[in-house]
């Protein structure tokens, strides 16, 4: 299936893709709990640098999200799990860049770190869903 086919499918059957977006959002919301927990523990309890703590929290949450999205959101039966996971992680790493730059820009303007992090997560979610729909789970 090509990207063009996927885009045509989205236009033809919006309800299926809307349902996937809702599921992706639910998975992402649970991932936020994982992300915030890891970030908080590393930053506040282990005294890690805040951007390092943010990165580790993001990567752990992305791995957790991959598993849930593979099984529930996209119902993937791709036998090449490692390839699919790596694609998901590449999308997530681009998302991490978007997340970190957004976070940095807001914190630099004296915004609360955790409120800025929530906004950065929302921006990143839009990227992650679209890219994973078109590249990772397109089959």
Automatic annotation (TrEMBL):
Compartment annotation: Membrane
Alphabetical list of InterPro entries matching this protein: GtrA_CellWall_Glycosyl, GtrA_DPMS_TM
Domain GtrA/DPMS transmembrane: 23-137
GO BP of this protein: polysaccharide biosynthetic process
GO cellular component terms, A-Z: plasma membrane
Membrane topology: Multi-pass membrane protein
One Pfam family recorded for the sequence: GtrA_DPMS_TM
Keywords from the UniProt entry: Membrane, Transmembrane, Transmembrane helix
Chief localization: membrane
Regions crossing the membrane: 21-42, 51-68, 88-107, 114-135
Family: Belongs to the GtrA family.
PANTHER family: PROPHAGE BACTOPRENOL-LINKED GLUCOSE TRANSLOCASE HOMOLOG
Protein name, as recorded: GtrA/DPMS transmembrane domain-containing protein
